[in-house]
Design goal:
There is one protein chain. The chain has a single domain, classed as Glycosidases (TIM Barrel). With about 525 residues, the protein is of the alpha/beta class. Helices cover about 40% and strands about 10% of the residues. The chain has a seven-stranded parallel sheet with strand order 3-4-7-10-13-14-15, covered by helices on one side. A four-stranded antiparallel sheet has the order 9-8-11-12. Strand 3, helix 5 and strand 4 form a beta-alpha-beta unit. It has 17 helices and 15 strands. Helix 1 packs across helix 2, helix 8 crosses helix 11 and helix 15 packs across helix 16. It starts with a helix and ends in a 22-residue tail after the last helix. The longest helix is centred in the middle third of the chain and has 31 residues.
Length: about 525
């Protein structure tokens, strides 16, 4: 195959043979990279499945549930009535005296209530709560999870589980003894020991799970299980198998590599009990996150909790195992060289197969957005450009020898804005990276297609000013918030330069005004 034929073949599959780098220079993709990506993508689809889906992105989510609106209808979301401010927190570090050495969802509810009532905050933006492996060592980073759909049990407040109250005195004393050293650690500056936290919480959860639950609680759990369906079953099954064979399905015995075959082998016996346990844990997390959002709104927050969605998940994790047909093995997503990292970045996460995702109507992606928005007032999507194009790096090559692969952005961005509209929530796209200006404009246009009363959009942008570039490579100097769309109602969330607080002398010597009675409550200190 000649170079011209190789480029033509790549472009036909949606692979860019060149790109414009952060210095606004054209860079040609190596032939070795193009060949590897072409091989991974396989044959081109007989027809473009994106044409009909992109024409009306509302159809993506309309097919998701029986209660969805009719195709083409406008969903009218709830929107913030005014500009608001809020805290950005890493929830694991938000430790109170009742925390088990790790911030939890009850701490989140407490901070939301206090900051709304005493300070007038309108939201709290948190880190991804994605689920890690169910065995030690537990990964520290929330950005390389085993599942983006489900949550880490480290965020559970054990004492807030209703069935905890039904334990007998000896059992409750046992749980209290598990908690005591971890609660003591929460009042120190020591680093978080996730392995220790999970070991203690797992023992407490297993005890509570074995105690059973009353009929009305069992009915609630069954409703949750029916709602989550096959996704919950796959997650719980992966956890049960990971406890036996390790948290990377690529090294499992052959009979468990196929999710369908594994389902039949885990229908009964000890593994079935563990499947039920891990599904039950996710029900508890769902309840406690819903309670945190309810508390935030009841305290006066207009938005409440804004969650965060990582770019992808671990190649050996539950998502990659359950969606082997939709994710591309032998490829990793990342970023080309830029002002932040001149050698490029490899994030060790498998990408969606663009043609298979489009053939599925982007339903797996829409389902993921819907789950992330179910109990929150907004969703920040990390590296939102990945809904339009992703930097693919073939296995064995350095990060700077990748290429951009295009996705049906009408379908993917439409799935995000449609689900945000359906939930009455905000969608915030992080624009960090090598982002073409038209991609930000497209996101704004897609948001206007799913806008609320008064024509205001619920899709926003986010960028770090210190890394942002404008025409000519200049850094934006103004701290003002530019409009995200023509209407001027959608605003971008702008973060300051890293050195702006040190360089700014305007606040020197000034005393900040604090609302009356704004002292942090003792249990949050």
């Amino acid at each position: 195959m000649t170079d011209r034929e190789l480029i033509k073949r790549a472009e036909a599959l949606g692979v860019s043979a060149s790109y414009v780098n952060w210095r606004r220079e054209r860079v040609d993709v190596p032939a070795e990279t193009l060949r590897a990506i072409i091989e991974a993508l396989g044959e081109q689809p007989a027809r473009e499945p994106a044409s009909g889906a992109s024409a009306n992105s509302a159809n993506v989510s309309a097919a998701r549930s029986p209660g969805a609106s009719e195709p083409g209808s406008r969903v009218r979301p709830r929107l913030p009535g005014q500009r608001s401010w809020g805290f950005t927190v890493q929830l694991y570090s938000l430790r109170s005296r009742r925390s088990w050495g790790h911030g939890d969802l009850h701490d989140l509810a407490d901070l939301a209530s206090w900051s709304a009532r005493q300070l007038g905050a309108g939201f709290i933006l948190i880190n991804p709560l994605h689920a890690p492996e169910p065995v030690c060592p537990v990964s520290n980073s929330p950005y390389l999870p085993m599942s983006r759909r489900y949550m880490s049990p480290l965020y559970l407040r054990i004492e807030a589980i209703p069935e905890y109250q039904n334990l007998n005195p000896a059992q409750r004393q046992y749980v209290d003894e598990l908690a005591a050293p971890l609660q003591a650690a929460s009042t120190t500056p020591d680093l978080i020991d996730r392995d220790r936290v999970w070991a203690a919480k797992r023992l407490a959860l297993e005890l509570i799970h074995s105690a059973g639950r009353p009929a009305e609680r069992e009915a609630s759990y069954r409703r949750f299980s029916r709602r989550e369906g096959a996704e919950l079953a796959a997650w719980a099954r992966w956890c049960a198998l990971a406890e036996v064979h390790g948290p990377d399905w690529r090294g499992w015995p052959p009979e468990f590599v196929d999710p369908g075959h594994a389902a039949r082998l885990t229908e009964s016996g000890p593994l079935a009990d563990r499947v039920g346990f891990h599904a039950w844990v996710q029900w508890l997390l769902d309840e406690q996150l819903a309670a945190a959002q309810y508390t935030a709104r009841a305290a006066g927050m207009d938005i409440g909790v804004i969650s965060d969605l990582a770019v992808g998940s671990h190649p050996g994790g539950a998502d990659a195992w359950a969606h082997q047909d939709l994710l591309v093995r032998g490829m990793s997503v990342g970023a080309p060289p830029d002002g932040f990292n001149q050698r490029g970045q490899d994030w060790a996460q498998p990408p969606w197969h663009p043609h298979r995702l489009a053939a599925a109507g982007a339903k797996p992606l829409a389902d993921l957005f819907a789950a992330a928005l179910r109990h929150t007032g907004g969703l920040r999507v990390d590296h939102v450009m990945g809904l339009m194009r992703l930097w693919w790096i073939p296995a064995g090559l350095p990060a700077d020898r990748g290429a951009y692969v295009r996705y049906d952005h009408g379908m993917t961005v439409g799935a995000l804005t449609a689900e945000a509209a359906r939930a009455g929530a905000l969608a915030i796209g992080e624009d960090l990276g090598t982002v073409d200006p038209w991609r930000s404009r497209h996101r704004a246009r897609s948001a206007r297609d799913h806008q609320g009363p008064g024509g205001r959009t619920q899709s926003l942008g986010a960028e770090l000013v210190g890394l942002a570039r404008r025409a000519g490579g200049r850094t934006p100097a103004s701290p003002r918030h530019p409009p995200n769309g023509r209407s001027g109602h959608g605003r971008a969330v702008r973060l300051p330069r890293p050195d702006s607080c040190l360089a700014d002398r305007s606040l020197a010597g000034r005393r900040r005004r604090r609302p009356a009675h704004a002292e942090c409550p003792r249990h949050l200190r």
